[in-house]
Every structure is written in structure tokens, then in C-alpha cells.
Amino acid sequence: MSANQSPAGNQPTAAYDSAFLKACRREPVPHTPVWFMRQAGRSLPEYLKVREGIPMLESCMRPDLVAEITLQPVRRHGVDAAIYFSDIVVPLKAIGIDLDIKPGVGPVVEQPIRSRADLARLRDLTPDDVSYVTEAMGILTGELGATPLIGFAGAPFTLASYLVEGGPSRNHEHTKALMYGDPQLWADLLDRLAEITTAFLKVQIEAGASAVQLFDSWVGALSPADYRRSVMPASRKVFDAVEGLGVPRIHFGVGTGELLGLLGEAGADVVGVDWRVPMDEAARRVGPGKALQGNLDPAVLFAPTPAVEAKTDEILDAAAGLEGHVFNLGHGVLPTTDADALTRLVEYVHTRTAR
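and the corresponding C-alpha cells:
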């Protein structure tokens, strides 16, 4: 069951007619919907207060805390969708991978995965492994009412990069060495991660997510040929597995201007666009039949309000002819962003695009 349908499958829920889900379905909207990647997080003083002294991974496993953090930007900014507060490495931690999220660094894996023997450490993910996700989503869907809740997961390539490198990487040298040097092991690794990712997304959808987003944060490091050959099969496997569950599927990557058409081809209903490609050009690259999401540069929010509005106008004008447009940043909210700037931006987009 998805959050867009009743248990019988024929009665839409309160979120079904939201501007966000209508845009994802490429239907007419009352205004362009807005949400922000990393809208729940360090830019909010209320987030810093409730997270004080609590490690990141622990905070992702406490349902009451997850629900509170997820709701904070909805209350403050009036965004059109909430996104479930978690981290892309949560399912890996849940199946027993020894990793931690270190402040100022990111996810760090104690024993990187670089051999066929290491694959055995990637066991199946079961709903019981992430029961806190089901519990938190139950709280959230009750609180959010008609506001959609977006579930998410890390895409197989990005998860593989963390696992193979042992942490964040600028050049992905170990990842690419494995991808080029042992294509069969690489394919098996990504296929395994696709199964884990699919299981994680299904838990979220069954618990009430109205849409899901697959984050391929590092895939912009690849050429189109490498993406098509070595990554797309695994991403497509994830999208295909959740296709029949009644929720829009969003695909986002950073630095993916050359990959936009392929991101859509992998199976997404909505393709996320970073700030490097104008929305009208992104639409040309993606082709018809897809909604687009994006794409204000997060750094623009540090400029004076008139400059933010001028850049927003450029995006809205470029997106005016799209079949469906969800306004977002071209990547996540930066930690030192003024929270009031985000609130003003939501109000501006809503007012500027009111039908």
C-alpha cells in the first residue's frame, strides 16, 4: 500500500491531491510546489537543539526524534513536502556494516569492501532491521495529513563508493579501479546494493511514504558510457522494483548535467537537476514524459533577498513550459544558511506561481 492510495487501492489519501504529487504526476498545480534537500538539518536552530549530544546515526534510529526533525521545516517554512530524516548509510548500518558518521567527515567504513569475499557481509535487509523507520513514518503520516512525506535511499553507485573507498572521496580511485578492473565483481556488488536499497524503499512506501527519491550523490564522477554500462542496470533494478507501488520515483545526482537523459532512462518519474544546467535545457536533455525538480544554487541563499528572487525568477521562467516542475535547490541546504531566507523563498515561489 502506498500513501497515495487507501488499503483497498482505489481511494486516494489526503496527500494525493497535494501540489507536490500533482507536479510529480505532471498534472496542473495551484502553484509550483517547493521543498529543499536537507531542509531538516543544521540550518535550523531547533534541529541543533534537539540533536545536541546525540550522534547522527543514533538520531536516525529514534522514531520520536526522527519525526520531530522531519516536521521542523514543514512547520517553519511551509514547504509542500516533508522528507524523512535519515542518512543514506542507515540500511548498511542496519545489516551490520561497521560504519559511523564522523562530524566534519561523513560516513566512514571500518573495513572497506574490495574483494569477492567481502560481498558476504552484505546480507539481506529485512523490515525488522529498520523497525524504527516504520514506527517513525507512522507518527509522521498521522501528523502531516495532506502534506506528502518523501522517503529516500542512496543509489547503488554512491553506496558502493562509500563502501569501497571507506568514506567520502574526491577522485573515487578505488571505486573506479574496481569498476574497470573487475567488472563482474563490480556488477555483483551493485546488484546486491540494489536489493538492499529496494528493500529499504519498500519499507518506507509500505509505512506511508508518498514518493521516494534515489540519491546518487557521487555519480557525476562518471562518463555517460560508464554510467550506462556499469551503473544504470542497478539503478533501473531499484526503480523497476518499486514501479507498481503507486508512488512517484525521483532520481537525483550532483554534477550530472551530462547524465540527465540517462537518469530518466533508468526509470525515474521525476529527474532532479543541479544548478549547472538551466531547467529548459535540462528538459531537452531528459526528453518528454518526465517531471523535473530543481534547481537554485544553494549558495544563492547567502545573497540579499532581491538577488535570490531574481535568480528564482530565472529558474521559474526557464521551467514555465515544463510538464511538471518541483522547485528545489540544486543540492542540499548549506549548514550556515539563514533559515528565514528559506521561508521567504517558499513564500515567494508560491506567490509568484499562483494559478
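(Above: one complete record from the training split.) Confidence is low (pLDDT under 50) at residues 5-10.
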